[in-house]
Design a protein that fits this description.
about 0% strand; 2 helices; about 60 residues; single chain; mainly alpha
Length: about 60
């Protein structure tokens, strides 16, 4: 059984470590749910998530490599 939606799965800890040890302040949580469900269209789920990502100066592409 999966975890309830909305949990950060350790993001707060990683954010604190990266900020304190490396001085990186622009940290963002990106997640996609349902990837572990048998028969899920993983490419579609990740593609929908990529559409919501915005990093100034960076291009996020949905094209397969």
């Amino acid at each position: 059984m999966g975890r309830p939606s909305g949990q950060h799965l350790g993001f707060d800890y990683i954010q604190a470590v990266v900020t304190q040890f490396f001085g990186i302040r622009d940290i963002r949580l990106v997640k996609a749910e349902g990837l572990d469900i048998e028969g899920a269209d993983v490419r579609a789920l990740l593609g929908r998530q990529n559409e919501t990502i915005s990093f100034p100066g960076h291009l996020i592409s949905n094209k397969a490599h």
